[in-house]
Amino acid sequence: MVHGLKTDAAFRFERGVDPNGTLYALKRAASLIIELAGGKLSSEIVEHYPQEIKAFDVALSLNNVERLLGISIAAEEIERILSGLEIAIDKQGDCWNLKIPAYRVDVQREADVIEEIARLYGYDKITVDESLSTHYMSPLLANDEHGVNNAIANFLAATGFNEIVTNSLTKASNVNYEDRLQEEDSVPIHNYLSEDLNVLRQSMLVSGLEVIAYNANRKQTDLKFFELGKTYHLAGEEFSEKLHLALY
Questions:
Q1: CATH no. for residue 237?
Q2: Whole-angstrom Cα distance, residue 189 to residue 170?
Q3: CA 149 to chain centre
Q4: Is the pLDDT of residue 98 over 60?
Q5: What does the DSSP 8-state code read for residue 71?
Q6: pLDDT in tens, 223-239
Q7: Could you tell me if 90 and 29 lie in one domain?
Q8: Residue 117 CB neighbour total at 10 angstroms
Q9: Three-state DSSP state, 116
Q10: Rounded Cα gap, residues 55 and 127, in angstroms
Q11: CA distances from 87 to 21, 83, 224, 235, 244 (A)
């Protein structure tokens, strides 16, 4: 690879080739030479194998399968999937001892096995939990509003959400979409440019729905949005603003 040349052999071997498949490949090659090129066997195969490469031992807990995937898969279905991957199984209750074929160099941990189970079981069968949880935030982060917002945004972006930033200005009649809102609690804008932008929003619902409608009208249906934004309220002569996390 000094000259940057990539061979077909390098492409295959760097991704893992079954070291125990050499004998089969040799026999197959000899068979084709005899069949197609008129060759003859000159001797028996002599194999010099310095060190046997054995199957990988991996312990699989059925409880961990459910914990990592978030769904319960029948033990019989898991066994069917693993058997189809030529993985030998030694059952001991809910903990199985597996023998992973040597050519599967990408499956050497329990998490790798569970990933294979999910792949063959079908990602579309794994339901998405409607609840949202996160890890405990350190006291230093909890006192840092900007840091908390960044942590939330990074977490949601990593799970497939796209961040949106919508206009804080809206029209007064939008409060009618939510029974809990009152038009007199809206913060009015003096010298507004449009009747559609004459107050500060009391809710983030309408602005988010407008983004969804804009995308849906352009045939974009796979939508997952979030927004960290503020709402504004008037109580008597007192103004207040509140920070919200909205998921659409």
A1: 3.30.930.10
A2: 10
A3: 21
A4: yes
A5: S
A6: 999 999 999 998 888 88
A7: no
A8: 19
A9: helix
A10: 33
A11: 16, 5, 38, 67, 49
